[in-house]
Write a structure and sequence with these properties.
Alpha-Beta Plaits, 10 helices, elongated
Length: about 280
C-alpha cells in the first residue's frame, strides 16, 4: 500500500545518522558438562579450576581491555563471559586463550554475540546535515566527507570514556539483543531522520531517570551478528532491569518498532571465586 505521508523538506535530509564506535565486545554463553566433570577426582577438579581462575584473573584486567564472569540464572546458560577489548584481534586472542584451558573440555558454548560499543549521533547529525544542505553541499562529495570526518573526530575525543568503558562492577547483569522493526506496516528505517531523532530522544529520557541505579552499555552489531544491537544493563538490584525495560516499552520507539531477542540475567563472579562457584558458593 502506497504511503500517503506528505514529503517535506526535512525528509530530504541525508537519512543515515553518524555513529561512533569504541570497544570490541564478545559475549560467550556456556552450559557445563556436569556428568563428565563428576567423573574426575577432586584433585584434578581443583587443578583445572585453579588453572582457569588464574587465566581469568589475567583477562579480567588486561592491557587491551577487561573480562567479566557471570553465573547465569535459568536454563539458557550456566556461565557467561563478557569481554571488552580494543580490537577484534584482541577478542580472538581471548577466544584462543580460553580454548587452551582444560576447563574448556567441560564447557559447551550455547551461543555468543559479537558487537562494538556504539554511540548514535542523531542530534549532531541533524545539525551537520542541515548546515551542509543549506550550503548546497551534496552527500559524499569531498567537502561533505571532510565535514563528517571532522565531526566524528571531535565527538570521538569528547566521548572517549563512553566509547571505551570499564565493565561496571555491579552485582547483576542483564544482556539482550534487539532490532528495529522492518515490517510492511512499520519500518523504522523508512522514517525521516528528524522523526527518528525525536523518538530516540524520548527513549533516552527514560533511561536517564535510572542513571543512578543502572549502567547501560549499547553495542552495535549490524553486519557483525544476527541482531542489530546488543544491550548490557548492570545493577545491584536485578528488579531494576524489569522496571526500566517495562517503562521503556511504553515509549513510541519501543512500542512501535522494537523487537527483542533472548534475555540473559546473571550474577557477577570474580575470577578468584571460580573454585567456590563450582562448590555451590556465590560471592558475597
Amino acid at each position: 500500500m502506497a504511503s500517503t505521508m506528505k514529503v517535506t523538506a526535512s525528509e530530504k535530509l541525508f537519512a543515515v545518522p553518524l555513529t561512533l564506535e569504541g570497544s570490541s565486545v564478545l559475549h560467550q554463553m556456556y552450559k557445563f558438562r556436569w556428568p563428565e566433570w563428576r567423573k574426575l577426582k577432586e584433585k584434578e577438579q581443583k587443578e583445572i579450576l585453579g588453572e582457569a581462575a588464574t587465566a581469568l584473573e589475567k583477562l579480567e584486567s588486561h592491557v587491551n581491555g577487561q573480562t567479566a564472569l557471570f553465573s547465569m540464572l535459568g536454563h539458557k546458560a550456566e556461565l557467561m563471559l563478557v569481554h571488552f577489548r580494543s580490537s577484534f584481534d584482541h577478542l580472538k586472542h581471548v577466544e584462543l586463550e580460553l580454548a587452551r584451558l582444560r576447563l574448556n573440555d567441560y564447557l559447551e558454548q550455547t551461543t555468543s554475540y559479537v558487537s562494538v560499543v556504539e554511540l548514535g549521533l542523531y542530534e549532531s547529525s541533524l545539525k551537520l546535515f542541515r548546515a551542509l544542505q543549506e550550503k548546497g553541499v551534496e552527500p559524499h562529495t569531498p567537502e561533505w566527507d571532510a565535514a563528517v570526518a571532522d565531526t566524528i573526530t571531535r565527538q570521538t575525543e569528547a566521548m572517549r570514556p563512553r566509547l571505551f568503558p570499564q565493565i561496571p562492577p555491579m552485582r547483576y547483569v542483564c544482556f539482550y539483543p534487539m532490532d528495529r522493526r522492518r515490517g510492511e506496516e512499520k519500518n523504522w528505517y523508512s522514517l525521516p531522520i528528524e522523526e527518528r531523532q525525536r523518538q530516540m530522544e524520548e527513549h533516552g529520557m527514560v533511561g536517564r531517570r535510572y542513571a543512578g541505579t543502572v549502567k547501560q552499555i549499547i553495542t552495535g552489531s549490524i553486519g557483525l551478528d544476527d541482531w542489530e544491537w546488543g544491550v548490557d544493563l548492570f545493577a545491584d538490584d536485578p528488579v531494576i532491569f524489569k522496571k526500566l525495560i517495562y517503562e521503556m516499552r511504553f515509549d513510541e520507539v519501543s512500542a512501535m518498532y522494537a523487537l527483542f531477542g533472548q534475555f540473559y540475567v546473571g550474577v557477577r563472579v570474580p575470577a578468584a571465586g571460580l573454585p567456590d562457584l563450582f562448590n555451590g558458593k556465590l560471592p558475597d
